Amino acid sequence: MPAEPESKQRLLATAGVSVHYGGVRANDEITLAVDAGEIVGLIGPNGAGKTTFVDAITGFTRYTGTVELGGTSLDDAGPHRRRRAGLARTWQAGELFGDLTVAENLIVAVEGGGVRGALTDVFGRRRRTDQAVWNALELVGLSELAEHRPDQLTLGQQKLVGVARAIVGATQILLLDEPAAGLDTEESVAFGGELRRLSASGLGVLLIDHDMTLVLDVCDRVYVMDFGRIIATGTPAEVSADERVVAAYLGSAVTS
Ligand SMILES: Nc1ncnc2c1ncn2[C@@H]1O[C@H](COP(=O)(O)OP(=O)(O)OP(=O)(O)O)[C@@H](O)[C@H]1O
Fold this sequence. Notes:
The chain contains ten helices and ten strands. It is of the alpha/beta class. It folds into two domains: 8-86 and 170-256, 3-Layer(aba) Sandwich (Rossmann fold); 95-167, no CATH class. α7 (185-200) packs parallel to α8 (212-218). The structure holds adenosine-5'-triphosphate (ATP). The site of adenosine-5'-triphosphate has 11 residues, from β2 and α1. It comes from Parafrankia irregularis. One of its GO terms (molecular function) is ATP binding. Keywords: ATP-binding, Nucleotide-binding, Transport.
């Protein structure tokens, strides 16, 4: 077997991940990898099993198979330990707190325990949090908007706050579940540029989105899921030319 190129550092590796919901085989033997600095797409029709996969690897739903981060198994770890190990996710409905500033939205996420507890925490802990919050905002290019409220931001910027909120603290892999939903073409292009900048910092990104232009533009590799299985994988050019993928998902939208 050919050796992996030395420059690639494997961060996330799953093997044979399967999830059953009653009689539904929501994930069927999913084997997938994300390297440092890489953006990997996971696409497929509604109900294909994409969110289930994120739920499984982040420890929110039971699975069989194996999930490793940096060569260490996470299979016995709950969601909090997986997050502390460096696996971060966004949620499909990732609304921000409208009454809090951008920075406060991140502080609440990292410290938990409610808004008041987070904002009145002891001095030392706040300082560490402030640094982590600042770093996350820097990574998505929003540090100048830290004291703004969400309604003073464009929708694209609000989406980036959601990304920053997910990566506060040590993060190796970022799992993005439909992060560009609702963005217009221009905002989606700008969002994609920020994702590329973010991955260039060494983060591995798994991007789930129905915006095919975004996925095919920013991803290094793409996995295509249908009925819980991976039906194709390759570069954006390879998967968009794959007949099975076109039949299952892409239709004429991308090929035209
Ligand atoms: N908690 C659950 N209990 C039972 N069935 C579920 C549960 N979550 C998902 N499913 C089923 O598992 C299958 C995969 O759903 P999933 O939400 O993972 O798909 P998806 O690819 O993320 O879809 P979408 O693109 O619409 O978000 C579907 O048949 C769904 O109805």
